[in-house]
């Protein structure tokens, strides 16, 4: 047998580094091209062309934007709290980029006799013939989603600008309100799956038994709340241009400004991936194509849905937003939990 | 155990390096021509009036407090949901009582007007 480092074979470490790098680059590229896709899709929905000049049909636009942002002047307002102002974009970006660690991109693949699960934070026990992953994967994702709030609040407060402060506060209140409803909505999924491990939740949905069919209410509430939690239209009040200039990132420029947007798009990808994992059967799909293809197809469809919603709906007013979260979704999720409990106990036996 | 958590650490390191790298790189190659007006807080072209760190609506504190209360209760429900089928009828009744108490508190908060934004 192979030599062991900390009780794990060398092949494990090679597979781990490869998985981390591939997933990181994949998310980074998806973030870059999600900005392009968004401009292009919304452009066509509004009977415009969107970016056309850089490359064929504007395909090089994300790269041009990135290069431009690197060369932009970095402005730190004289009255800002400098340290907090500098770390705020990092605090927003890093949780956004590490939360996909527990998401299963597919089932296991076997390369050269060594089986690797297509999930970053997981390994295949060659002796026990089963996948071990982070058994509290859902909690990890919720925790990382909450950490992202700090970056935005910090940015709003540290800028020492009125628009930033208001944007940051609005954002914090909105994100925590909807995080609550989203967290309560998925409880009914765990009642069916009996696990918080994302690998097991996906494995449970084999053969088209998606939780979206068993828990349609939880699915809809979770997806809408997630849109609100990542500040997407129609819930993009923290950046409401007509009221708050640019919200919490008014004072930011250059790459630090870009990092808030990368965080936002990375969060969008994570949210779509979590929705796919919890409700849309993850990697399951017709067998003529590999699992990871179905997973990515479902995630991209949900990302398209986010953009479609953005092109369709006007922005909520703040009191409407809070009313929807606290007075509609919160009681509905509690009712859903009770209903699921009664259903499991008395009907599905 | 280690096999599942070690990759997260590696990913954290890579994400930190990426974030720090892009901030440092852009501040190295970006131009710098600061002026007093440019560094003033943005207020639609007018002279900034006073500090931004003033008092803001009490509603935000209230929402934060309610969030903590309800989120803790949501966290209590996670382990229960995982063990739900194994606990059987006992678990259902127990959590039914818990949700009823939670709901009474929720109705109280609603009737007190803590959820209103006018």
UniProtKB/TrEMBL annotation, chain A:
Pfam families: NADHdh
MF GO annotations: oxidoreductase activity
UniProt keyword Transcription regulation present: no
Record's subcellular location: Cell membrane; Membrane
Reaction(s) this enzyme catalyzes, per UniProt: a quinone + NADH + 5 H(+)(in) = a quinol + NAD(+) + 4 H(+)(out)
Main location: membrane
The keyword Cell membrane is assigned to this record: yes
Domain of life the protein comes from: Bacteria
Transmembrane segments: 12-36, 83-105, 138-159, 180-202, 208-228, 265-285, 291-312, 324-346
Matches recorded under InterPro entries: NADH_UbQ_OxRdtase_su1/FPO, NADH_UbQ_OxRdtase_su1_CS
HAMAP family, per the entry: NDH1_NuoH (MF_01350)
PANTHER family: NADH DEHYDROGENASE SUBUNIT 1, NADH-UBIQUINONE OXIDOREDUCTASE CHAIN 1
Family label: Belongs to the complex I subunit 1 family.
Protein name according to UniProt: NADH-quinone oxidoreductase subunit H
UniProt gene name: nuoH
From TrEMBL, chain B:
Transmembrane intervals: 6-29, 60-81, 87-109
Membrane topology (UniProt): Multi-pass membrane protein
Enzyme Commission number(s) from the entry: 7.1.1.-
Catalyses which reaction(s): a quinone + NADH + 5 H(+)(in) = a quinol + NAD(+) + 4 H(+)(out)
Compartments reported by the entry: Cell membrane; Membrane
Subunit architecture: NDH-1 is composed of 14 different subunits. Subunits NuoA, H, J, K, L, M, N constitute the membrane sector of the complex.
Name of the protein this chain belongs to: NADH-quinone oxidoreductase subunit A
Provenance organism: Geomonas diazotrophica
Source species taxonomy: Bacteria, Pseudomonadati, Thermodesulfobacteriota, Desulfuromonadia, Geobacterales
């Amino acid at each position: 047998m192979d030599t062991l480092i900390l009780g794990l074979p060398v092949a494990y470490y090679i597979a781990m580094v490869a998985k981390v790098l591939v997933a990181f680059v994949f998310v980074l590229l998806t973030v870059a091209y999600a900005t392009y896709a968004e401009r292009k899709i919304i452009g066509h929905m509004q009977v415009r062309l969107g970016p056309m000049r850089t490359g064929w049909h504007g395909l090089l636009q994300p790269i041009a934007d990135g290069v431009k942002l690197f060369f932009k002047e970095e402005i730190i307002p004289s009255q800002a709290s400098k340290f907090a102002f500098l770390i705020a974009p990092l605090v927003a970006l890093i949780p956004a980029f590490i939360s996909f660690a527990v998401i299963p991109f597919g089932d296991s693949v076997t390369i050269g006799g060594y089986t690797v699960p297509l999930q970053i934070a997981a390994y295949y026990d060659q002796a026990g013939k089963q996948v071990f992953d982070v058994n509290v994967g859902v909690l990890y994702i919720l925790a990382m989603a909450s950490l992202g709030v700090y970056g935005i609040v910090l940015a709003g407060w540290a800028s020492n600008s009125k628009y930033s402060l208001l944007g940051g506060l609005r954002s914090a209140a909105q994100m925590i309100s909807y995080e609550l409803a989203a967290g309560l909505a998925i409880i009914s999924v765990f009642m069916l799956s009996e696990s918080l491990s994302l690998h097991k939740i996906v494995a449970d949905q084999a053969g088209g038994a998606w939780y979206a069919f068993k828990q349609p209410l939880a699915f809809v509430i979770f997806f809408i709340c997630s849109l609100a939690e990542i500040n997407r239209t129609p819930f993009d009040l923290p950046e409401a241009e007509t009221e708050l200039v640019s919200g919490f990132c008014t004072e930011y420029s250059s790459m630090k400004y870009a990092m808030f947007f990368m965080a936002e798009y990375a969060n969008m990808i994570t949210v779509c991936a979590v929705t796919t994992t919890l409700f849309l059967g993850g990697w399951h799909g017709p067998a003529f194509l590999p699992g990871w293809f179905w997973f990515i197809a479902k995630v991209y469809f949900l990302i398209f849905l986010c953009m479609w919603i953005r092109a369709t709906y006007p922005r909520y007013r703040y009191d409407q937003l809070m009313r929807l979260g606290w007075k509609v979704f919160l009681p509905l999720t509690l009712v859903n939990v009770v209903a699921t409990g009664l259903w499991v106990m008395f009907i599905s036996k | 155990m280690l096999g599942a958590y070690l990759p997260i650490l590696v990913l954290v390191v890579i994400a930190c390096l990426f974030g720090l790298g892009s901030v440092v790189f852009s501040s190295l190659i970006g131009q710098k021509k600061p002026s007093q007006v440019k560094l003033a807080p943005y207020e639609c072209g007018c002279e900034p009036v006073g500090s931004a760190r003033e008092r803001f609506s009490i509603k935000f504190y209230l929402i934060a407090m309610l969030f903590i209360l309800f989120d803790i209760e949501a966290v209590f429900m996670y382990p229960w949901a995982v063990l739900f089928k194994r606990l059987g009828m006992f678990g259902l009744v127990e959590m039914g009582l818990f949700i009823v108490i939670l709901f009474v508190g929720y109705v109280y908060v609603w009737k007190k007007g803590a959820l209103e934004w006018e």
